Structures are given as structure tokens and as C-alpha cells.
Automatic annotation (TrEMBL):
Protein name as it appears in the record: 1,4-dihydroxy-2-naphthoate octaprenyltransferase
Classification of source organism: Bacteria, Pseudomonadati, Bacteroidota, Flavobacteriia, Flavobacteriales
Pathway: Quinol/quinone metabolism; menaquinone biosynthesis; menaquinol from 1,4-dihydroxy-2-naphthoate: step 1/2
Spans traversing the lipid bilayer: 12-31, 37-56, 96-118, 124-144, 156-174, 226-246, 252-270, 290-308
Example GO biological process: vitamin K biosynthetic process
Organism for this UniProt entry: Chryseobacterium gambrini
Length: 309
């Protein structure tokens, strides 16, 4: 059991929760302002779904990189992978991927049933399609003949599914509507998620080069990937500030709503420390730190709107 828990990579779970928290609690703030009802069951099921997706993704990545021999090049790194190390066989991990695919789909159907049945049948079927795409995206990062993670497309998929789909989709589950301003927090969470993936790919840049995994970081080189990382870590708080601005909080002078901006200081410190790194393997601790910062951006934005907005 210990090996399975480690393979689930629990330190990545706050990242997956961030988009749901952001979308759900912006919806709560907006619904309460309009006299609407916020259904806690949708939030609880959405958390279950996103956790299952994240574990599925981590198991699929472990399986895909393990059978391709990619993780074998990473024997000296801090986080040894289960299949590559032999702690879990490829067959066992493959079965786990199938199991969590089924569990993810069942949980998705349950979530969408509560959110949309019986009055929103078209939306129910559209989101079933999105759920299937999310499951396929979780598996397809490293599994298959042409995994998109090996073609440098991981960043795009992470942006779409961890950012836009997670934030805007969860918002829609509650409100049954789409608001263009939701693209701002969706993009913010998406970019923070990309920052975590890019750090991971920068850390593994040498081993990925040996194994033929052409991540985006490898394609553009370590120096350019570092510049890219700084951009990804710089823009999200600006986007959240814009979101609060377009919703009128500059005019109200209700500054407590801007509590999320206190994260400028720790994010600045993290950026400086990352920029000082010369050995890619030294980037590993920052994955957890940036993941926590992503969660805090979502949590403090939600708290500011619902407590002071």
C-alpha cells in the first residue's frame, strides 16, 4: 500500500484541487449576490472527480514512462517511480490505470447527474464528453504510440484541463452559465499548473534528452525554459487582479477582497530562488512550493470574494 500511495504522488493533489476551488467559490459568491443557491453536493463530488483524475494521471504517467524506459534514466532523482524501480509491476500499474479510469468515469457521471439532471440534458451530454476527454488526456500524456507529453504538448493540455476546463467548468456546474471574465482566473490557474509541469521538465531535462522525451523545456533549452518559468509565475496574480478589477472592486475600495495579493511576496522569493538554480536536479523542491502557491491563489481569491466581496 505504501508504494501505491507514493505512486499517487500526493504532493500534486493541491494543484488539481485549485481549479475546482477557484471556479466553485467564484460561483458561490456570484450566486449569493444574485439570490441563487449553491449546491454543496456538486462541490463535494467535483473534489472527488478531480482527485480521481489526478491519481489516474499520476499512475498513467508512472506506467507510460516506466514501460518506455524513461524513468530508468532518473535513478538518481529524489522521487523514484514505482514501475521503473520494480516496486509495482507494469501489469499491476496498467490494471490500476484501468480501474481509476472506470472510477473516474463513474464519479463524473454522478457529479453531472446531480448538477444537470433533469433540467439540463444537453449540458449533461456535453460534460460527459468533456469528462471522457479529461480521462483520455490524463492517460495520453505518456501512454500510447504517440503520447503528447513526448511531443512537447504537455503544457497546452495542462493549461486547458487544469486551468480553463477545471475553473470554467466547475463554475458552469453551479451557475449553468458561462461568463467571459472566468477566463482570467482560469488562465491564472492554468499558468500556475504549467509552471509546475515546466519545473518538472526542467528538472528532468538531461534524462529526458537521453530517453527521447521531447518536453517543451527540452525543445527550447534550459535557459529559455527558465525565462518561460518566470513569465508563468509572474502573470497569474496580475490576471486575478484584472478579474477583481472588472468586477468593480477598484471602485468600491473594498481592499480586503484583494487579500490574495499578499502572495506577491512569497512568489517573488520563489522566483528568485528558482532563477539562482544552476543544476536542474535542484529544482525538485520547488514543484511542491509552486503547487502550494497555486492552491493558495485559489483559496485566498475564494476567501476574499466570499468573506469580503
Amino acid at each position: 500500500m505504501k508504494d501505491w500511495i507514493k505512486a499517487a504522488r500526493l504532493r500534486t493533489l493541491p494543484l488539481s484541487l485549485s481549479g475546482i476551488i477557484m471556479g466553485a467559490f467564484i460561483a458561490k459568491w456570484r450566486l449569493y449576490g444574485e439570490g441563487g443557491i449553491w449546491d454543496w453536493r456538486i462541490f463535494a463530488l467535483a473534489l472527488v472527480v478531480t482527485l480521481l483524475y489526478q491519481i489516474l494521471s499520476n499512475y498513467a504517467n508512472d506506467y507510460g514512462d516506466g514501460i518506455k524506459g524513461t524513468d530508468a534514466k532518473r535513478a538518481t532523482e529524489a522521487e523514484a517511480r514505482a514501475v521503473a524501480s520494480g516496486k509495482i509491476t507494469a501489469k499491476q500499474m496498467g490494471n490500476a490505470v484501468i480501474l481509476f479510469s472506470v472510477l473516474s468515469f463513474i464519479a463524473t457521471v454522478a457529479l453531472l447527474y446531480v448538477a444537470f439532471i433533469p433540467n439540463y440534458m444537453n449540458e449533461f451530454y456535453i460534460f460527459i464528453g468533456l469528462g471522457i476527454l479529461s480521462i483520455l488526456a490524463a492517460i495520453g500524456y505518456t501512454v500510447g504510440k504517440k503520447p503528447y507529453g513526448y511531443m512537447g504538448l504537455g503544457d497546452i493540455f495542462v493549461f486547458i484541463f487544469f486551468g480553463l476546463v477545471s475553473v470554467c467548468g466547475s463554475y458552469f456546474l453551479f451557475t449553468k452559465s458561462f461568463s467571459w471574465d472566468m477566463l482570467l482566473p482560469g488562465t491564472a490557474i492554468g499558468m500556475m499548473s504549467m509552471a509546475v509541469l515546466n519545473l518538472n521538465n526542467m528538472r528532468d531535462i538531461e534524462s529526458d534528452k537521453q530517453s527521447g522525451k521531447n518536453s517543451f523545456a527540452l525543445r527550447i533549452g534550459f535557459k529559455n525554459a527558465m525565462i518561460y518559468e518566470m513569465i508563468l509565475l509572474q502573470l497569474p496574480l496580475i490576471l486575478i487582479l484584472l478579474f477583481l478589477g472588472v468586477n468593480g472592486f477598484f471602485q468600491t475600495q473594498n481592499y480586503k477582497v484583494f487579500i490574495v495579493m499578499i502572495l506577491m511576496i512569497p512568489l517573488m522569493k520563489i522566483r528568485r530562488k528558482i532563477m539562482a538554480v544552476k543544476n536542474p536536479r535542484e529544482l525538485d523542491p520547488f514543484l511542491k512550493q509552486v503547487g502550494i502557491m497555486t492552491f493558495m491563489i485559489a483559496a485566498l481569491t475564494a476567501a476574499g470574494l466570499n468573506l469580503f466581496g
